[in-house]
Design brief:
alpha/beta; nicotinate phosphoribosyltransferase; five-stranded antiparallel sheet; globular; nicotinate phosphoribosyltransferase activity; Nicotinate phosphoribosyltransferase; glycosyltransferase; Nic_PRibTrfase; pyridine nucleotide biosynthesis
Length: about 400
Amino acid sequence: MATVASLLDTDLYKFTMMQAVLHQHPGAVVQYRFKCRTPGIDLARYIDEIDAEIDALCALRFTADELAYVRALRFIKPDFADFLGLFYLDRKYIVLRPSRDVPGEIELEITGPWLHTILFEVPLLAIINEVWFRNTTQPDFGEGVRRLQAKAALLRDVPGYEECRIADYGTRRRYSLHWHGHMLPLLHDALGDQFVGTSNVHFARLYGMTPHGTMAHEYLQAFQALGPRLRDSQVAALESWAHEYRGDLGIALSDVVGLDAFLRDFDMYFCKLFDGVRHDSGDPFVWGDRMLEHFARNRVDPASKILVFSDGLDIDKVKRLHAYFRGRCKLAFGVGTHLTNDLGPTPLNIVIKMVRCNGQPVAKLSDSPGKGMCDDPAYLAYLRQVFGLPADAVA
């Protein structure tokens, strides 16, 4: 069974970023790198199987029905849909090999035009996950259903539950394509309007759900190399987004170079322009308090803005965040691995991050240790200096 169902079997924000790249930076060249953060995982043992799955991924094309679906999304422009009709993922941009330094690990790099490589990340992670789990575990789908039902019951018990809206954000670390497709209708049936959709465009189309997503870290990271100045990279990225979408898809990402630097750049103009912000690292309660204070200082009613939480959420954390911020602002929760990979075996912590753009290093200085990736200490030091961050700000 294939591990990726379609070229739509990815997160919506890959397409929204890709459209902006087509229109504004079609010549940008980038490099992504894979990392497994879970110790003791022997992926090299299954490298041939991963390799074959990548070949199958690169043989996929958008179908006429899929293109019609994409074209009907309100924020997709006709020329981008036409471009997707010609698009395919080209294997020549991928290097996959056993690690030369660490036995059992793999080295996976993607290098090429941003426009032609941006769709690799999510399906490659889904492939590696599924290959690992189907070779090392025996799935207990009955247990997965029981756990899912228990989570739904907890969510229905949340005070003001009808305001506690969650979406599936779990494509990249799912247990398998089969389980992902099986659990989404179950969750929708159990939660009703509490479940607002999925980041996965393929399943959104298949099940008539709303696809969710705006931008990822790579979009803001790329502007560290695209200019004009490094210090202005966040502002340039947000301006670029506003130019592309004219107020639509208005959720900004706040933690590419840390919250302090983001708040300095996210001025009154952006506070009024964007619908809200997304949390993806650091203490979510502290982050939310600071964001709401920032909106108020910039003469924006915090109750009119959306806080989107998406960092390693489980149902208990969703409940606590909802109780803490309820009535102070609009809330949304993107739950990933806790929904799509909770059948018993411990999920892998694997990522693919952009590390270079146009030959220059780029990085994320996270509000949480270990969430970034950069192999250039000199650049990290420079990034910290430019944004006025402490020397121990983590990548």
